[in-house]
Each structure stands twice: as structure tokens, then as C-alpha cells.
Amino acid sequence: MARRARWLLLGPALLAAACGGGGAHSRPDPRPAAPSPTPSARPAARPAARAAPRHLDVYAAGRPGRLSPVVAHDPARVYVPNSESNTIDVLSQRSGRVLAHYATGTLPQHVTPSWDLRTLWVSNDEANELTPIDPRTGRPGEPVPVADPYNLYFTADGRRAIVVAEALRRLDFRDPHTMRLRHSLRVPQCAGVDHMDYTADGRLALVSCEFGGNMIVVDLRRERVQRSIPLRSGAMPQDVKLSPDGRTFYVADMAAGGVWLIDARSWRRIRLQPTGQGAHGLYPSRDSRRLFVSNRDEGTISVLSLRTRRPIAKWRIPGPASPDMGGVSASGRVLWLSGRYNGEVYALSTRSGRLLHRTRVGAGPHGMCVWPQPGRYSIGHTGILR
């Protein structure tokens, strides 16, 4: 049964800080003024049509400063789901300090921006619910019952949400606002269905199967599996990201200690690029030139050139560290990552890898969301914006 998220306030001063930002009347495209956010019932506006660029870059809308009017006044925060303590910590990006802390349903896994950028959804896996958060205020709303929400995505046109029901081996296509179920796609060939990213045209998804050692390709229009791609025996594929030019998928493999390169047209495995033990999260830089790879089991970050597809740097976080999931700040200057096994959050300079902040949070911090981010719309996870 869904249960209401309970606020554990840290005091009026901290609550005020968590709710900072521009006034409601200054927002060009305001959200409803309700104190607790609920999914929007009205259709979301589609992104304006643009001429095709001479050189494709699927992340072009994510350059520094290109914030949508919808998020332009959202305060700069990091939302951290603590899977083992069933809580959310809200951090200031400026100071790295915890501003607010509240309880969620059981086993919160990821915090996902909605397609229209108006809501952050907390996927409470074992509680079978999604908790909406208004990123303008940081306040949670009434949880929405949803079966086994391990991860959450949205189709590129914004018309469907995709709940990754890992334990049930399903991809559940739902209404993106009410989360009402429309169609369940069973994926028995994908044990541990996990992360995904889309082809440049948004028609196909490459999905990782963490416990099956393979990937599957899903036709998002027909809502069916198109093919399976074996990796190698013992592989544990995790995060998935498309290259800026749309030609190559990068797939982090925690067991192989590296990143698979897969051709986005032929679906051929190109090669495995070693990075480090426990390769897990993948994050493109704001200029689309580098890819940051979190190597969770050795406490390092590998930096790959997206032009040569080879490593150009490796940063080590001082002391015991377990960098997992997170995102890049709107300015592009800071990489934020959760410390999965250390109950902390790291902020690193994207220029030098220097540790800027190290903040204690709850137990088992996982798929945290750095917000706001530039881009026209979100296709999910912890913030894949295009």
C-alpha cells in the first residue's frame, strides 16, 4: 500500500533555505500554487521545432546557461535518495550542505526529472510508489501507487512514461502525468533490467540487463523488444549513454571494469574500453567533449575523450570512496556523485577532478539528481536532457 512521505524538518531556517529561489510571480511558466505537488493533468508543451544542425549533437540543448524558462528559477539543489535509510537529503550546490531531510517509501532508488521538467519523481522501489517533488520548493506530494519502480524514463515525445520494473522483468508504459498503466512489456530475456538511453531519433532504446550479461533493443513506438545483444560471460552492464553524434552507445560494465562501445546503427559490439573497477555511471560534459565514468569499486573517475573514445585522465577521490550516480551542474563546472557505500556525496571540479565538497548523507545514497539542468525536455533516469 502506498504511504505518504513524511517530512523530517531540520528547522525553519533550513526549510527556508531549501525553498529559496525567485518569487512565484517572476516565473515565466509557473507551476500550480498548490502546497504539495501533484502530477500535471494538462498536456505538456512540445519542444519548438528547430532546423537540423549541420553536425548532430544530441546534447546541444544542454550547454551552460540554456535553462528552460520552466526551470530558470528553480534553486540549485542536489536530491539524494538514501536507499538503505529510506530518506531523501536535499543539498545546496553552492555550499554542499544538507538543507532538508525527509522520509520516503521503502528503498528509494532514483530521483528522475519528468519530461516537462516540472516534477522530480522519487522511485520508492519496494514501497511500490513514486513520490513527486516540486523542484521549485523542494516539497514532496502525495505518493502515486506504481508497481516495482526501480527506474523511470519518458519517451522523447513526452507522451509515455516508462517504469523500469526490475524485479518483475517488465517495462511498464504509463501516462506521464497520472502514471496510469497503459501497457506492460515483459522482458524475460533481460534479467535485472536496469538503465537505458535512446537513439538520436528517439525511436529505439538500448537497455542494460545487469544480471543477464546482455543488452536489449526496444522499439519504443511498437513497445516491443527488437533484439538482444550478448556482451560476454559474467558481464554486469549498468549505465547507458549515447555519444553526441548519435553513432555510438557507451555502456558501463561493473564486472568488466570498463565501458562497452556499441554501434547505434548495426548494434555491433565495437570493443571494451577499460576504465576501472566497478565502472558504473556515465555523464557527458556540457561541451560534449568528454565522458565521465564513475568507477565505484576503486573510488576513481575516468575521463574519456568523446572524439577519440579513449581515456585522457583519471581522478582519485581521497580516502575510501564509492562514486556511483549523479550528474553535472548546470554551469558544467561540477560533477556531483553519490558515495554508495560510504554514506556521502562528492562534488568534483570537471576541469581538474579536485574534490570541492564531501557531504555526509543517509545510508546507501544512490541515483541522485542534480537540479536544475539545461535542456528542452527529460527522457529520465537521474537527468538525461535533450
Summarize the structure.
The protein is mostly beta strands and 386 residues long. The protein has one helix and 29 strands.
Description:
The protein has 386 residues and is an all-beta fold. It has one domain (12-18, 55-371): 7 Propeller (Methylamine Dehydrogenase, Chain H), CATH 2.130.10. The protein has one helix and 29 strands. Strands 4, 5, 6, 7 and 8 form a five-stranded antiparallel β-sheet that branches. The chain has a four-stranded antiparallel β-sheet with strand order 3-2-1-29. The chain starts with 11 loop residues before the first helix and ends in a 15-residue tail after the last strand. The model is unreliable at 1-53 (pLDDT under 50).
Beta content = 35-45%
Report the CATH topology name: Methylamine Dehydrogenase, Chain H
Tally the helices: what do you get?
1
Tell me which CATH architecture applies here: 7 Propeller
Average pLDDT across residues? 89
**Number of discrete domains:** 1
Instruction: Give the class-level CATH name.
Output: Mainly Beta
Low-confidence runs = 1-53
* Largest sheet report: 5 strands, antiparallel
Q: What best-fitting shape do the alpha-carbon axes yield?
A: globular
The total beta strand count reads: 29
Radius of gyration: 19 Å
What is the name of the CATH superfamily? YVTN repeat-like/Quinoprotein amine dehydrogenase
Along the chain, the helix and strand elements come as: HEEEEEEEEEEEEEEEEEEEEEEEEEEEEE
